[in-house]
């Protein structure tokens, strides 16, 4: 909103017959900045990170801005989200990074709130594939079990279970 005030010197105009001396001042009145969104949480899956927050109560909220950064980057605008939506899935992520998110509210006048407290999120690790191509060599007293090595780079090892049947398995050294 813009208000304009005009001060007019009528007395001076009558006595001197000169041009009217006017002073005008424009004053811009902005609506208050929206409240900072609260309740930001993250839930990770193997494919995306879901973020949700509490909706602002102001009636003039236009949209929310979602900010994101990694450990190597600065917080920057990731996407703008419609005001009716307070849950979003971020699938533009990789398992190599930890992500930090914050959200702000923007009103219909373009005023933006402070960003919320940030949350940290990382994709859930995918479990390794089930080993395949088992071969049991039974020559002598010590049987030997071999299998095709898995290709996952982050594989930490294998756990071998033995037993007489599937219901009596127990873990052995790997």
Oligomeric state of the chains present here: single chain
Can you give the mean pLDDT? 85
- Alpha-carbon distance between the termini? 73 Å
What share of the residues does DSSP label as strand, in percent? 35-45%
H/E element sequence: EHEEEEEEEEEEEE
| Helix-and-strand structural type | mainly beta
What is the 3D shape?
rod-shaped
* Overall radius of gyration: 33 Å
Ranges where pLDDT stays below 50 over 5 or more residues in a row are none
Helix content range: under 10%
Tally of DSSP helical segments: 1
Can you summarize the main beta sheet? 4 strands, antiparallel
Q: What is the number of beta strands?
A: 13
Q: Which strand order spans the largest sheet, edge to edge or round the barrel?
A: 6-5-8-9
Task: Give an account of the 3D structure.
With 174 residues, the chain is mainly beta. Helix content is 4%, strand content 41%. The protein has one helix spanning 10-16, and strands spanning 2-8, 22-28, 41-44, 49-52, 61-70, 76-82, 87-90, 99-107, 119-121, 132-137, 144-148, 160-162, 170-172. The strands form five sheets. It has a four-stranded antiparallel beta sheet, with no helix packed on it. Strands 3-4-7 form a three-stranded antiparallel beta sheet, with no helix packed on it. A hairpin with a 6-residue loop joins strand 10 (132-137) and strand 11 (144-148). The longest helix is centred in the N-terminal third of the chain and has 7 residues, at 10-16. The relative contact order is 0.17. The mean pLDDT is 85.
């Amino acid at each position: 909103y813009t208000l304009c005030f005009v001060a007019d010197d009528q007395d001076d105009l009558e006595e001197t017959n000169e041009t009217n001396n006017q002073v005008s001042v424009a004053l811009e009145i902005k609506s208050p900045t929206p409240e900072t969104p609260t309740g930001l949480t993250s839930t990770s899956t193997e494919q995306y990170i879901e973020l949700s927050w509490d909706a602002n109560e102001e009636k003039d909220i236009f949209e929310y801005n979602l900010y994101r950064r990694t450990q190597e980057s600065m917080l920057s605008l990731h996407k703008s989200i419609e005001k009716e939506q307070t849950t979003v899935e971020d699938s533009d992520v990789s398992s190599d990074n930890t992500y930090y998110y914050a959200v702000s509210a923007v009103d219909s006048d373009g005023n933006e709130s402070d960003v919320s407290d940030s949350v940290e999120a990382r994709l859930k690790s995918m479990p390794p594939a089930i080993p395949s191509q088992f071969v049991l060599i039974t020559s002598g007293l010590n049987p030997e079990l071999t299998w095709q090595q898995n290709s996952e780079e982050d594989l930490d090892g294998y756990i071998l279970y033995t037993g007489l049947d599937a219901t009596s398995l127990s873990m052995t050294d790997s």
